[in-house]
Structures are given as C-alpha cells and as structure tokens.
C-alpha cells in the first residue's frame, strides 16, 4: 500500500498554513505538555498535535475504508485499523504482536492457530473477539477459496484451516489483513461503496475532525495499552512539494516522506533529521497481456526487452533523483537483504549502461524494421508508446522524459506526458494504459514471495477495464510457469525448495519484463527530532520511518514522545 504525492507547483505556504489553523489548534514552537496533559503540576496546556504530510493532496476526500487500498487516507492502516501482527520489512526480527498474541502453524502448514490478546475492545467500546477475526477473513476481498474453515474454540483463539500450506503467506494473512468489527461491517453488503467517514477500529487513534485541508486523529480511549505520548496527529494535504519542503524547514510539518534533492537544505539546522532506505523499486509498468485486453506494441516482450536495454540508469539516477537512489534488479529481490534467494547473480542488477545496439538487434530479430523517421515498426505500424506519470511527481516526470529520449535513440517512439494524480490511478488500476511510471512496494519480510504473489501472479490481475480483485498485478501479466512456481513456494517451509521455485520465477520475469525496473527509489523520511524523540535510527530500525507505509506509522506514533 504505497502512494506518493510529489509536486512542483509552488503555492502560498503562508496562506495554506493559515487555512489549516482554522481547523486545528495553532502550532506552537515546541511541545508544551507530556502525555498526561501537563508538563508540571501547574500547567494544563495540552501537548500539540504532531503534524504529518504523507502525500495527501487537497481537497482531501474523506475515505477510511480499509478495503480501498489505493484511496484510503494515510493513517487508516495501523493507527486506526490493525492486522494481527506487525512484520518489519527492515529487519529479520520475529513478527511483533498487535491484536494477536501468538500464532502457530501445523506441521503441514495448512492450519494456523492464532491467540488474541485478552480483553480487546473496538474504539466504540464493543468487545473485539475471535468472531471479528473469523468474520474479517471471510469478508470481501479477504475471501479465498483455499480457506476451508475458520473456527473459534474460545473468544481469544482462532483456527484457520486451508487446503494448501500457507507458510509463505504469513506476512499477508497475519500482517496485512486489517481486522474489522463484525458488528459494523456485517451490515454492509457493498464494502467498496463505503467511504467509512467514522471508522470503528482497534488502533491507538480515532478520527477527531476532517476537512478539505487536513484531518486529525486523537487517542482511542478504548485502546488496549496506555495512551501514547503523542495524543493527537494532524495529517495535512498539500499540492506542492516545494510547499512541503518549506513547511518542513520552518517547523510547520514534523514528519514527511518525500523526495528532496538536497536534503541538507532542511536538515542543516539540526531540528530535522532524515533517513533514506532505498528499498522500493521504481518501474515502468507495462500493460503487457494482450489476452487480457492490453493494446499496443508493449504487449510484445521483444519491445519491453529493447526498452529495458535502452535505459541509461546511472544518468537517470543522477538527473532525476540527484544520485540518491540505488540499483534495481529484474529479480525483484531487495539486496543484500534477500541475497539467499537469488540463484542467478547476473540478475542482481538491471543493465546500468544503455545498449542501443543490442536493443535494436532484439527488435530486428522480432521482425521490426525502421521507417524513414528512424523508428521501428511492424506490418506498416510504427511502435508508438504512451508513458505517463502524475503531474508534479518531479522525479517520475523527469525520469519519464529521459526514458522517452533514450528509447528514441534505439528507434522506439515513446511520448512522455503527465496527468493529474486523480487521473493517474484509474487507468493504472483498470489497465487502460500502455506504459506508466510506478512504484512497487517491497516485500515486508526478507523473502520476495509477496512481490511475486502480488505483482506477477495471474490470480492477482483482471481483464482490462476491471481492477484486480486480489493483489496488484496492474501489468495484467500471466505466465503458467510463474503461477506454478508461486504456488509451489507457498506450499513449503523448506528454504531449498523455495529457492528453486524462486529461481524459476526470476528467470521468467527477467525475460518477460512486465515491470521494467528503473531504480531502487530514494525513500526519504524527514522528521522533527528537536520536538519529538523516539524515531527509528540506523541502530534501531524498529519500523520503516516513512509515514505512508502501511501499519508502520502505528509503531512509530506509539514510540514517540515530546522532547524536553
């Protein structure tokens, strides 16, 4: 669940800040109180809200529906709705209990026994029991044909029985399934039609106020643990990356995740710190499957292979990302974290130098010839591809223009354009596109299975015109050998067998290239260490420091304390 909003159009920061103060308490220079509401026996001034920009643009549309993976507002996942356990994608540590207390697989991997923490409550005060968990696993998009039964021997025990082993699926089942209250959602037949403006969740926060410019969370008094030191969080909307940078520099934002080419410009005073975890692949996602309704030359693997070879990735890294990114790879593993799962070391990185000659050889071997303008085509039809990115996502916009220029050198006509963010998500989701700049989310544990199951499985896609019912295979890619290997990997807890199956997947997707890797994106988090303590550090990466990551913000908010 990763979405970014990076814009370049400068807007009035002062005017925006003024508008925001109309729906929240004025920002003070420093925290004035502890979690108990006062810093001394005589003060009653409440601690100020932590202010976050996670990527929301204005006007903000209220949507706290946990089943809306692309439109649910930031903070929905974790601070409001929780999974059973938290899997930290930055470490190999065991999963951290949230609603769950423990879980255990049967020897064959087909049965999972989960113990809940005792005396749990929903934010409306109703008991949270095993019945809610059972309901969640059988509701809406959580339904799966592999789940044979879900039973509750008692109020805090859940037994899930599957037709196939689920060892590899634990992070998704237990760490990415948001548990919802049965007494609320059992009354909702069309879960997709809901915006869920007044969510009832289990996390440490509830929704206090909403507006076009921001929304504020306050402490959930029915939360299982004591109140966090930061009892209010204001999530703001901005339409300009420059505005975000300016507000961060002047203390108007405490926490954000965005691309800043010169981070020293905001960290120089010592009030703001930064961390750059290069982990999520930026790709050119292609609508690759003609059988699913994709149209265009990009449905030919030869065209995708040639485009892959035409990209000068070091030049893109420097010009579009100021050298702050890492090397992506066609195996879609995170290195060095996932080194044990990479069999073919030639797939450790995508080509780092453009190879125009080889790109043209591939096209020629596939029957393409150049026209008078120097572009390749076949059967009298020129390769003419559309590549789009959201207006204002400056790194993506710049990268798209450079990719179009480099493709042209190999005789591949690519036109780069931008669209509004609102116009971006619908065609990507429904498959009405040829090429799009896109960011994949890295697997949340040191195992690439979720990448393969979410983005490359034929079961994780749909025909053009329909959104995937499960997963995020927006490429519409389907390969029976890949599907078989994904299923085989899911059915075992044996590392040797999994590695063999992963090798099959990696060989296929590196050849088929439904997602053309560009770079390992600069995932820059910026946070106020002058006024708040407890942020993740290199020595203690207890959660990903990006505010738009699913679930992780809950761990961070619970760990923060006002400084002083």
Report on this structure.
With 564 residues, the chain is of the alpha+beta class. The chain has three domains: 13-80 and 203-277 and 523-562, Periplasmic binding protein-like II (D-Maltodextrin-Binding Protein, domain 2, 3-Layer(aba) Sandwich); 85-185, Dipeptide-binding Protein, domain 1 (Alpha-Beta Complex); 281-520, Roll (Dipeptide-binding Protein, domain 3), CATH 3.10.105. It is built from 15 helices and 23 strands. It has helices at residues 13-21, 130-137, 170-175, 182-185, 241-249, 264-267, 301-310, 313-321, 356-365, 394-409, 421-430, 449-455, 480-490, 495-512, 552-559, and strands at residues 50-53, 85-86, 96-97, 100-105, 111-116, 147-154, 157-162, 205-210, 214-219, 232-236, 255-257, 272-276, 281-286, 369-370, 376-378, 381-382, 384-390, 413-419, 435-439, 515-520, 524-528, 532-533, 561-562. Helix 10 (394-409) links the parallel strand 17 and strand 18. Helix 7 runs antiparallel to helix 9 (356-365). It is globular. The model is unreliable at 1-46 (pLDDT under 50).
| Count of domains | 3
Q: How many individual β-strands?
A: 23
Class inferred from helices and paired strands: alpha+beta
Mass-distribution shape: globular
**Helical fraction:** 10-25%
Rg calculated over all Cα atoms? 24 Å
Number of helices: 15
Low-confidence stretches: 1-46
Termini gap: 35 Å
């Amino acid at each position: 669940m990763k979405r970014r909003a990076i814009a370049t159009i400068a807007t009035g920061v002062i005017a925006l800040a003024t508008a925001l103060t109309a729906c929240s308490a004025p920002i003070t220079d420093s925290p004035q109180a502890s979690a108990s509401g006062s810093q001394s026996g005589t003060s009653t001034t409440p601690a100020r809200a932590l202010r976050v920009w996670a990527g929301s643009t204005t006007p903000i549309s209220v949507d706290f529906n946990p089943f809306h993976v692309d439109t649910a507002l930031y903070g929905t996942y974790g601070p409001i709705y929780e999974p059973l356990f938290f899997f930290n994608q930055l470490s190999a540590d065991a999963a951290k209990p949230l609603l769950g207390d423990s879980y255990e697989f049967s020897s064959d991997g087909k049965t999972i026994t989960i113990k809940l923490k005792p005396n749990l409550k929903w934010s409306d005060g109703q008991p949270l029991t095993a019945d809610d968990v059972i309901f969640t696993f059988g509701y809406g998009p959580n339904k799966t044909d592999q789940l044979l039964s879900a039973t509750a021997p008692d109020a805090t025990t859940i037994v899930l029985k599957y037709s196939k082993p689920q060892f590899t699926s634990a992070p998704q089942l237990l760490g990415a399934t948001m548990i919802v209250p049965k007494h609320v959602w059992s009354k909702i037949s069309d879960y997709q039609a809901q915006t869920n403006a007044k969510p009832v969740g289990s996390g440490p926060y509830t929704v206090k106020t909403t507006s076009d410019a921001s929304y504020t969370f306050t402490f959930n008094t029915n939360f299982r643990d004591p109140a966090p030191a930061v009892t209010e969080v204001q999530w703001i909307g901005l339409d300009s990356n420059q505005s975000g940078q300016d507000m961060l520099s002047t203390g108007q934002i405490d926490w954000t995740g965005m691309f800043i080419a010169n981070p020293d410009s905001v960290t120089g005073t010592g009030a703001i710190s930064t961390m750059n975890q290069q982990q999520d692949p930026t790709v050119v996602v292609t609508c690759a499957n003609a059988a699913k309704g994709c149209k265009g030359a990009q449905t030919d693997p030869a065209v995708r292979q040639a485009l892959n070879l035409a990209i000068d990735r070091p030049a893109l890294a420097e010009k579009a990302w100021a050298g702050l990114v890492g090397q992506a790879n066609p195996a879609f593993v995170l290195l060095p974290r996932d080194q044990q799962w990479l069999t073919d070391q030639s797939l450790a990185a995508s080509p780092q130098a453009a190879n125009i000659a080889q790109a043209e050889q591939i096209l020629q071997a596939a029957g393409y010839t150049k026209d008078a303008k120097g572009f390749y085509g076949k059967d009298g039809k020129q390769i003419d591809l559309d590549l789009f990115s959201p207006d204002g996502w400056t790194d993506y916009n710049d990268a798209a223009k450079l990719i179009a220029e480099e493709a042209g050198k190999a005789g591949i006509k690519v036109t780069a354009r931008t669209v509004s963010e609102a116009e971006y998500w619908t065609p990507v989701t429904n498959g009405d596109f040829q090429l799009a700049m896109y960011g994949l989310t890295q697997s949340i544990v040191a195992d690439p299975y979720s990448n393969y199951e979410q983005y490359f499985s034929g079961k994780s896609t749909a025909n053009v015109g329909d959104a995937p019912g499960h997963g995020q295979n927006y490429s519409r890619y389907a390969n029976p050998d890949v599907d078989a290997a994904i299923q085989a990997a899911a059915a075992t807890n044996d590392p040797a067998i999994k590695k063999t199956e992963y090798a099959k997947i990696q060989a296929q997707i590196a050849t088929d290239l439904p997602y053309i890797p560009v770079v390992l994106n600069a995932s820059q988090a910026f946070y106020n260490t002058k006024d708040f303590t407890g942020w993740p550090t290199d020595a203690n990466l207890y959660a990903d420091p990006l505010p738009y990551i699913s679930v992780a913000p809950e761990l961070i908010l619970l760990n923060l304390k006002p400084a002083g």
